[in-house]
UniProtKB/TrEMBL annotation:
CDD domains: MFS_NepI_like. It holds the Pfam family MFS_1. The keyword Transmembrane applies. Residues 16-387 form the Major facilitator superfamily (MFS) profile domain. It is found in: Cell membrane. One of its GO terms (molecular function) is transmembrane transporter activity. The chain crosses the membrane at residues 51-75, 82-105, 111-128, 140-158, 170-190, 211-232, 244-263, 275-294, 300-323, 335-356, 362-382. This is MFS transporter. The keyword Cell membrane applies. Its main location: membrane. It comes from the Bacteria.
């Protein structure tokens, strides 16, 4: 297949973007599936819950530490075959877990998945800008990574329900089959794209400070989000929710993220600065309200829906702005965003765990809001990283 013309519009290359969206849905479903099945997996191998939980935390650690190195190592490889290889490795990861005879084999399968995840999203974030003109990078990334929200809303709950009904091995086995189908779908629809030239890398050298600002703001924002979101179930139960209600509320929170994603997709290319100001301001206000209303279930649920709805628009903002700095290749820019987000996830969960016994559920949202506010301050100070208009700093994304 010949390489795509970089002047193509979003509409004319929608097939490739939807292929990336399906693959990103698969990726996040693979990452998060064990959360709802940890007790069953642990029971099978007589392993305690805290040890089984490492199957999830291992992912975030591997992505945070390996996203950039793996992207650098694979920089000279053709883009489409490399991305297809990551999807194939999702097939392998889920299949290994499905038939694992020991807990060590389960961990090995998850390790394959973690290595894959560290590279996949860097490739996905870097691939979408190569399919469209630079002026449409934000919308293209919003479409390509929309599968993340779909994975949280549909993929994870449905896979978890399947596992609880028929056994956790069935759930991973079905996901392996779906991953194989995704591989065929992506191979069919996704066009090939060119790699960067040395000239692009040389021209980009002067914009690294802008990329640092994007990555720093991204990390702070994700720390803020996951300082509270990691413990949202505890917050809901503390406000009087029954255990049966927690799942549907989390499902609604995931679905509401599609609203924020749609807003960012429509405004990000025209006004990155205004988009991040509106989105993060809504997150800060809603999280603060969640803290004030942490003992009243209905106001807490409403605040959670608004806050998570707004946060759904956060990832494409940082992805697009990182690519548009022109500081490095789209993949490496995506790798830094990917790594800093996972660093924020891990750090936020740790900060929340340390502070929750001290300041309680009423104080934790204030800490969360403070970190998001720091992310917003960095973004507002970095005028070139988050420009008022969508005019790109460089020429093209790839």
């Amino acid at each position: 297949m010949t390489s795509v013309d970089p002047g193509l519009s979003v509409r004319s290359n929608i097939g490739g973007l939807l292929a990336l969206a399906v693959a990103s849905c698969l990726a996040v479903t693979t990452e998060m599936l064990p959360i709802g099945l940890l007790p069953a997996i642990g029971s099978t191998f007589d392993v305690d819950t805290s040890t089984t939980g490492l199957l999830v935390s291992l992912y975030a650690v591997m992505v945070a530490t390996l996203a950039v190195p793996l992207t650098l190592v694979t920089a000279r490889l053709p883009r489409k075959p490399l991305l297809l290889t990551t999807v194939l490795l999702y097939v392998v990861s889920n299949a290994v877990v499905a038939v694992a005879p020991t807990f060590a084999a389960v961990a090995a399968g998850r390790t394959i998945g973690g290595l894959t995840h560290a590279l996949f999203f860097s490739l996905c974030i870097g691939y979408a800008p190569r399919l469209v003109e630079r002026a449409h990078v934000g919308r293209a990334l919003a479409i390509a990574t929309a599968g993340v929200s779909v994975g949280f809303v549909l993929g994870v709950p449905l896979s978890t329900s399947l596992g609880n009904a028929f056994g956790w091995r069935v759930s991973f086995g079905v996901l392996a089959v779906l991953a194989a189908a995704t591989l065929a779908f992506v191979a069919w629809l996704l066009p090939a794209v060119p790699r960067d030239s040395p000239a692009l890398e040389a021209r980009a050298a002067g914009s690294r400070r802008q990329l640092v600002a994007v990555v720093g703001s991204n990390a702070l924002t994700f720390v803020g989000q996951f300082t509270l979101y990691t413990y949202i179930s505890a917050a809901l139960l503390g406000a009087g929710a029954t255990p049966a209600l927690v799942g549907p509320v989390l499902l609604l929170c995931g679905a509401s993220g599609l609203v924020g994603l749609t807003f960012s997709a429509r405004t990000l290319d025209r006004s990155p600065r205004r988009t991040i100001l509106v989105v993060l301001a809504v997150v800060i206000v809603a999280v603060t309200v969640a803290g004030a209303a942490h003992e009243a279930l209905l106001p807490l649920v409403v605040a959670a829906l608004v806050w998570n709805g707004a946060f759904g628009g956060v990832p494409p903002i940082y992805q697009a702005c990182a690519v548009r700095t022109g500081a490095t290749s789209p993949e490496l820019a995506g790798a830094w965003v990917n790594a800093s987000a996972n660093l924020g996830i891990g750090a936020g969960a740790a900060i929340g765990a340390g502070l929750l016994p001290v300041i309680g559920m009423g104080g934790l949202p204030l800490v969360s809001a403070a970190f998001v506010a720091l992310g917003l301050i960095v973004a507002m100070a970095a005028r070139r990283s988050f420009p008022a208009s969508g005019t790109p700093i460089g020429d093209r994304a790839g």
